[in-house]
Known about the structure:
By secondary structure, the chain is an alpha/beta fold. The chain contains 12 helices and 10 strands. The chain folds into 2 domains: 1-91 and 185-307, 3-Layer(aba) Sandwich (Rossmann fold); 100-184, P-loop containing nucleotide triphosphate hydrolases (Rossmann fold). The protein has a 6-stranded mixed sheet, with helices on both faces. Helix 7 runs parallel beside helix 8 and helix 9 (227-233) crosses helix 12 (270-286). The longest helix has 20 residues, at 134-153. Adenosine-5'-triphosphate binds next to strand 2 and helix 1.
Amino acid sequence: MAASGQDALLRVEHLSMRFGGLTAIGDLSFTAARNDITAIIGPNGAGKTTVFNCLTGFYKPTEGSVILTHEDGKQFLLERMDDFRISQQAKVARTFQNIRLFAGMTVLENLMVAQHNTLMRASGFTVTGIFNSPTYARANREAIEFSEHWLEKAGLVDRADDAAGELPYGDQRRLEIARAMCTKPVLLCLDEPAAGLNPRESEDLNGLLLNIRNEQKIAILLIEHDMSVVMGISDHIVVLDYGVKISDGSPAEIRSDPAVIRAYLGVEDEEEAEVVVERAVAAVAKKPAGKKVAAKKPPARKKGGRK
Ligand SMILES: Nc1ncnc2c1ncn2[C@@H]1O[C@H](COP(=O)(O)OP(=O)(O)OP(=O)(O)O)[C@@H](O)[C@H]1O
Ligand SMILES: [Mg+2]
């Protein structure tokens, strides 16, 4: 359900990001509620990753504000914070369009590294603290248990001691999400987590995201092109085109919005678009074995075509 007013975990207000003459995001406002999966969709180059980069401190927005409100009422103005504080204090975690794991480390080590800050705090930031302190020993045990918890959720228990870089693609995607969850975020930002996954892996991913949504009191922001994932698991969808919001609502509202049909589905005809979307949604419901969901990918834009 779209959040409005006070129940919003995240409020993006009049956000703009310009690179020279190019407006990657123009006056964008939307909200994301706790316990919701909010999808951000749109054609290639629409500005989706740029939104994440502004939320997570990788870019300083040209204008606008991004307000995150914790359950205890504490507010963070993300556009004024650096990426480290956004992750540590505001508790925003993200994954990247291109997988970024520590490929040479084991799966378990990747999850332990995510808890590095908690462990360093427990050590009192000293080497003697690491070796002698009972506080550190207890924190280390808890970090291992927490890693094991997320290994189980991500279906990776059997791969705990394997190098992350040796995992199949779908496992790596779920490991990235498990690693993000090990930082105990209140907002989880996922940039195209289903890209390159086969139908079985997509299904596992949907299961993991729904489980996180149902069991953790956090919000998920999901950038995704795969309509079966978007329509199947999102509570709320924001549609961008050329950096501008063209639609915002429930999956049912989005799928019948002519502006979305034209811009995102890449088809002119509403009936044809409905068939594309219905097929994708039906595929999620039936979970066909070994068959790729037939959601139409939006057309790629020519580079340099925008000013
Ligand atoms: N650092 C940058 N410098 C200049 N232009 C940029 C920069 N980052 C993004 N852009 C431009 O901003 C626009 C939006 O890019 P962005 O990566 O946010 O799109 P996207 O919606 O994530 O696309 P895709 O679906 O292909 O991942 C593009 O025209 C891109 O070239
Ligand atoms: Mg992108």
